[in-house]
Amino acid sequence: ETGMFTYDPGYTSTGSCSSAVTYIDGDAGILLHRGYAIEDLAMHCDFTEVAYLLLRGELPTAPKKTEFEKIITYHTMVHEQLHKFYDGFRRDAHPMAVMCGVVGALSAFYHDSIDITDPIQRMIAQHRLVAKMPTIAAWAYKYSQGQPFMYPRNNLTYAENFLHMMFATPCEEYKVSPVLARAMDRILILHADHEQNASTSTVRLAGSSGANPFACIAAGIASLWGPAHGGANEAVLKMLTEIGSPDRVDDFVKKAKDKNDPFRLMGFGHRVYKNYDPRAKIMAATCHEVLDELGIVDEPLLEIAMRLEKIALEDEYFIEKKLYPNVDFYSGIIFRAIGIPTSMFTCLFALARTVGWISQWKEMIEDPDQKIGRPRQLYNGATKRDFLPMDKR
Ligand code: SDX
């Protein structure tokens, strides 16, 4: 008696949804946002342009872009009382724990943007979340360093502002080099949205109950944190450091192929891509650009990563399993070169992905046929049985 009830296929699964935001062809390695190829967006746009596209469905004209940038810029400050939330954390708290807590708390401050039935309030919530994430993330880093929080500057771009809040101090400006600002823009674009991944599905499911947008994004941050998802960029750096030198790569590739060994190559493989993740190609090129700009000629981790990629792409196990580098494989090397600590890597992923999460949330909330998500299950527990009083057990 397996206890298995027959599964009624009539129930509509809420595991899938229709969406017009992002399209992925995993076999061909194609990624489109609102029909535009990620390669074109990453090479020719800045992050606010892509944020506008994801949220509003079209690339902005110059005046529209300027107007949108102004709106976002004037939402980058956070309520002054939010400072106090940081003081409640230990200095060594993981920045993702801080981001989860602070973002969830935003709904306690911004009562004028939590009524999801009001289109104006929904719009304000979208702008606030996109605008405040860099500030919240950078302050998590400053808090961990025991440094004063840096306020956003209205004369800086989205990417420049984040780097400024991360690395400037009241004693010294942080000069953002155009190449680094460009690289940061591109990295944010590459992480902006990715169809129905685990964290986006979490945001949709949370939002389907009518929960406020700040709470939904906090749920997405929690899901992204896992090493199988957004936490992989941090795990890649730990793996490359553990490998330690290019001549040890073969041993680790062997470990990754051993069914009895739980070790997996971080930054490799993908639920959807069975071809090269198009974002990984752009990330690899950006990695070389940033290292060149910073005059870093012998980055050992890059050497190990390139050797690991070469071996894996020629190895029949990885070819047969269709395992390729994904978006997380090179990003950590760039972040480290810029001076961003490993613990902040997933926070960067979260701040970039916020616009994707909130675009998908908006699409769902504005769907007149939207219902609360209610996944079903294949029950494999006990069939009905008679109750046993304590003395009979
Ligand atoms: C992200 O969904 C998204 O879109 C996510 C994301 C986004 O933008 O939101 O793209 C971001 O999360 C990228 C993925 C980051 N995670 C990692 O890099 C962690 C390492 N990768 C793996 O843990 C893994 O590849 C997953 C979790 C990403 C996917 O795992 P699956 O679903 O098991 O992959 P699969 O079914 O395609 O695996 C096929 C086979 C399996 O072996 P068999 O069961 O068939 O024997 O390949 C094996 C896997 O065990 N395999 C790996 C491997 N990844 C899969 N073996 C060694 N090393 C790996 N990295």
UniProtKB/TrEMBL annotation:
Residues forming the catalytic site: 270, 328
Gene3D superfamilies named among the record's database cross-references: 2.20.28.60, Citrate Synthase, domain 1, Cytochrome P450-Terp, domain 2
InterPro entries according to UniProt: Citrate_synth-like_lrg_a-sub, Citrate_synth-like_sm_a-sub, Citrate_synthase, Citrate_synthase_AS, Citrate_synthase_bac-typ, Citrate_synthase_sf, Citrate_synthase_typ-I
Pathway the protein contributes to: Carbohydrate metabolism; tricarboxylic acid cycle; isocitrate from oxaloacetate: step 1/2
Catalytic reaction equation(s): oxaloacetate + acetyl-CoA + H2O = citrate + CoA + H(+)
One annotated Gene Ontology cellular component of this protein: cytoplasm
GO molecular function, one term: citrate synthase activity
GO biological process: tricarboxylic acid cycle
CDD domains found in the cross-reference section: EcCS_like
Keyword field: Acyltransferase, Transferase, Tricarboxylic acid cycle
PANTHER family listed in its UniProt record: CITRATE SYNTHASE
Family the entry assigns: Belongs to the citrate synthase family.
Protein name, entry field: Citrate synthase
Source organism: Rhodospirillum rubrum (strain ATCC 11170 / ATH 1.1.1 / DSM 467 / LMG 4362 / NCIMB 8255 / S1)
